[in-house]
Amino acid sequence: MISFRQQGRLSATGLILIAAVAAALGLWLGLRQLQAPALPSLDAAVLYPAPRALPDFRLTRSDGNALTLADWKGHWTVAFFGFTNCPDVCPTTLTTFKQVHKQLGDAGVADRVRFDFISVDPQRDTPELLARYVGYFSKDFVAATGPDEALLPLTRALGMVYARGEPKDGTYSVDHSASAVLVDPAGRQVGLFRPPFEAARMAADLEKLARTGGR
């Protein structure tokens, strides 16, 4: 027969176990809340189930400064990989980005979103050429490039690809992904925009993101 004192010891032990389970459950729920998406419903962007951590990288901007993962933190970033000799996709994309940037400016959130054009043709796309090319669309856009040793790990991490064709008559083409990468203020890839890009839909999504912050 269990005495009152024994029952008291069992009750205390049970309470300790219950408290421990409750604390663990609270911690688990807290972590789930921190990890759960806190983003609004978007129309144009395709969001991943969970953010993807990105490796650090180092490219060279058109102004000679370095572009690293740290530069993608503190704001939303839309990054597109292309090259200045691109006959159609790149100029069309940057034209759309220019329209999106203007709409974000009209909404008062342009400073919370940046657009990066990263060349996968560093042999021809010098910093000076990149500055002129991207500056034609917007002085606020960032242009950068780097050697394949820097570009390949980054593009692979982002799920992007590129390949240069065989030189012919002193020139060559470059095939590259046509999607634009979406990076959150924590420097994580959270999704992408797929072509065809529509300025109004992209701007609406980015405005929502800019007003809600990160995950």
UniProtKB/TrEMBL annotation:
Q: Which InterPro entries match?
A: SCO1/SenC, Thioredoxin-like_sf, Thioredoxin_domain
SUPFAM superfamilies associated with the record: Thioredoxin-like (SSF52833)
- Membrane-spanning residues: 12-31
Write out the entry's keywords from A to Z.
Copper, Membrane, Transmembrane, Transmembrane helix
- Report the superkingdom from the record: Bacteria
Q: Which family does it belong to?
A: Belongs to the SCO1/2 family.
Q: What is this protein called?
A: SCO family protein
Which species is the source of this protein?
Answer: Dokdonella ginsengisoli
